[in-house]
Amino acid sequence: MLKEQAPTRRRILKTAGGLSAAAALGGAGVVAAGSPAGAAGNGFGLRIVERGEGNPRMWYYRFATDAIGWDPAVNVLLPEDYHSSGRTYPVLYLLHGGGLDQDFMTFDRGGIRDLVGGRPIIVVMPDGGHTGWYGNPVSSRVGPRNWETFHMNQLLPWIDANFRTYAEYDGRAVSGFSMGGFGALKYTAKYYGHFASVSSHSGPASLRRDLGAVVHWANVSAAAVDLAGGTIYGAPLWDEARVSADNPVERVESYRNKRVFMVAGTSRSPVSWFEQITEGEVLAGQREFRGLLDGAGIRHEAHEAPGGHVFRHDMFQRDLDGMIGRLRKA
Prior knowledge:
10-stranded mixed β-sheet; 10 helices
């Protein structure tokens, strides 16, 4: 569950994952037909194996996909007037953090319906693995765990085909907490024309600093929890090209002309020593990233807040208002 107080998880393996196209698709908006998701049970490499559309706002799907060795799920939070308005909406892809209790339900348990309230935006909350790091791992001993392929090549076009969305650059935002904050920064840089707004809530922005602390964290956590000894970036030798492709501080120009929002905790007492180490690495990496953005003349909004590695509801609501101000209006 997302909490504003210090988290209760204490085991390192349970929290280890928590650090955890060349031009924009401009022009006129491409509007999806918005047919019920059941009308497109197959498509984009996805097959619905479980569904829940009884709640008027929170719809749920579980898919079979060759990209993942089990059936990942997604929650889709609809605006309060979605069924009656006939309007088209911008979309926020909201990525969860790492840990044994983290999955597509994380933000629902954390009160996302109340946080979003009556705002005119669709929020998509997909599975990302306990320690998937929003990537296609270098190696896996448990079958495919290609989260990047699932999210970017399959789920994103499926959402646009089945809901009334602006299927374009100015119609999409991506945000996340911890590992998900890293995923949001990574996806924005690697898929330049997909997201006009990116937000990282306590997500690392620098993979190589401190002797590659975050790369080691990703490798160790994924090997222990999700990949049965496989790794995200390779070990003992890294796939250096893959690290550079995923590393926000090495992709600074990819954030130009986008809305960029970041928040990290200052980790001062009374948070635990583990919280101080975790958020301390996050804060240092975000500061490095912010300095590079400043040097390149790229606008961004950054906050440092008291406390450790936790999701801050007030910062998310501020972030959400900024997203809606940047994206196409419903």
